[in-house]
Write a structure and sequence with these properties.
The chain is an alpha/beta fold. It is 42% helix and 25% strand. The chain contains four helices and five strands, in the order βββαβαβαα. The protein has a single domain, classed as YqgF/RNase H-like domain (Nucleotidyltransferase, domain 5, 2-Layer Sandwich). Helix 1 crosses helix 2. Strands 3-2-1-4-5 form a five-stranded mixed β-sheet, sandwiched between helices.
């Protein structure tokens, strides 16, 4: 199964990719588009091109699990994206992913690292629940 994780930001989307048969999570670049429709179109095109089976999107909530403006932005992005794709989309709690990504070293963007942490956490959760 091919999975794409997205760390949604107002300026950039950080991407990470995994093929579950290989058991590895890799950075997959950035999407730097100005408008929500441009971001949605770019992701939809990528999903089709790369034959992605599942999308995992970081879900931003505060420490006490309260939703905020970023939560609303992510929900709107996913709502619009689902109009253009057939793949399922799942949310994964992204608290502390940027900080964990910062600790992961250098060589790729903070946004890609955060997406990798989201995807690694998602895969670990799925492994534990099966």
């Amino acid at each position: 199964m091919h999975i794409l994780a997205i760390d949604f930001g107002t300026k950039r989307l950080g991407l990470a990719w995994s093929d579950t048969t290989l058991g590895v999570v890799l950075p997959y670049g950035l999407i730097e588009k100005d408008t929500l429709p441009q971001k949605v179109q770019e992701v939809a095109t990528l999903l089709k091109k790369e034959k992605i089976d599942l999308v995992v999107v970081g879900f931003p909530v505060s420490l006490n699990m309260a939703e905020n403006k970023n939560t609303e932005r992510v929900q709107k992005f996913v709502f619009e994206l689902q109009k253009h794709i057939t793949q399922p989309v799942e949310f994964f709690d992204e608290r502390f992913t940027s900080q964990a990504g910062d600790a992961a070293g250098i060589g790729i963007s903070r946004d890609e690292k955060a997406a990798m942490v989201i995807l690694e956490g998602y895969l670990e959760r799925e492994k534990l629940s099966s």
